[in-house]
Specification:
This protein is an alpha/beta fold. It has a domain of 132 residues: Aspartate Aminotransferase, domain 1 (Alpha-Beta Complex). 35% of the residues lie in helices and 15% in strands. The protein is built from 13 helices and 12 strands. The strands form 2 sheets. It has a 7-stranded mixed β-sheet, sandwiched between helices. Strand 5, helix 7 and strand 6 form a beta-alpha-beta unit. It is globular and about 80 Å long. The chain starts with 8 loop residues before the first helix and ends with a helix. The model has no long low-confidence stretch (mean pLDDT 96). Bound molecules: pyridoxal-5'-phosphate. The site of pyridoxal-5'-phosphate has 15 residues, from helix 4.
Length: 393
Amino acid sequence: MSEVPAQTARDTTLLHAGRAEGKGPVNTPVHRASTILFDSVAELETAKAARFAKGTLFYGRFGTPDTFAFEDAVSVLEAGVATVAVPSGLAACVLPLVAFLKPGDHVLVADTIYEPTRTSLNAFIARNGVAVEYVDPRADLAPLLRPETRMIYLESPGSLTFELQDLPAVAALAKGRGIVTVCDNTWATGYFCQPLALGIDIVVQAATKYIVGHSDAMLGTVTVADAALHKPLREAANWLGHAVAPDAIYLGARGLRSLGARLKQHHATGLELARWLETQPGIARVLHPGLASHPDHAIFRRDFRGASGLFSVLLDTTDRAIASRFADSLALFGLGFSWGGFESLVLPGDPAHARTATVWTEKRQLVRLHAGLEDPADLRADLAQALVRCFPT
Ligand SMILES: *Cc1c(COP(=O)(O)O)cnc(C)c1O
């Protein structure tokens, strides 16, 4: 799986999705709007009645033609039928929880989800009488289902530690039981993995990451496989007062057109670095699902067309100061949160404090890397000099 994934029909559809074809500008013009004017009261009332339906121009908060065009393009990317754009990735993660969970419901949540989503579940969703239960991301969920289980929330691969979930198996378990399945697909995007095609009901994305792709906007998307799930999400977005700024939509729509080309390079560089790091002194383990050494590599080969640029390494030390020195020694890897832009990043991480259903016993220091679009040889040389500095032989 080191070779760069081939161009497929997915590349063609992604370039044409959500665009008016033919005469005129290539891209959907940006609309800046709060008030939308109508010709008559009757027309205004028709729009109001349909305000939660896809593509209804009613009031700025509900979206404008560029929002709808972007949402349509993301639906194509994710093999879904409708998308709701929201102001951040975290807003996307939280939206299905608000839309579908009510007091008395039970939700199973993969223990390895993005930590701020976990905070929202614990501090906000649980407070409203929802039983939030974290589970080992590799556990068989069948024995954990309750009559009141309403949702299974997944993220594959998991944040920091990259465990994969068996999405088709979870989807099959939930079907026919009134359980909504949600998967955070930020790592792969629909370009490399389509959870909706594997039976999952809802995909959430931090479009902030690879879709925007240049570290310059916050944006989230929620995409559904079944049109019936769209309206509850739209309504919940309105309860929360969500509105997405036109510049963010513009940058998301622009980013989508080069997503495939960028992801292919992230795939190649990430795997090249991961493979090389596996052979380096100072590196105890590399956590990358595209490596044959990864415990879930078989699932990766079955469900993913490629890998993005984000993975972790375990340094051969339990000393936090050495992990900090490693990160500080890198010149081409910027130190900061988020990822998915063109640039390489490094971040020391500690999974232990963000796990409750599983125990992270590993004492060796974890460092997360994002392989950007620089020359892989330059990135390798940078990693090599930092390793020499931290692990002198
Ligand atoms: C970054 C991230 C988010 C949140 O996205 P923001 O746009 O930063 O709010 C959600 N899920 C995953 C997996 C992420 O990595």
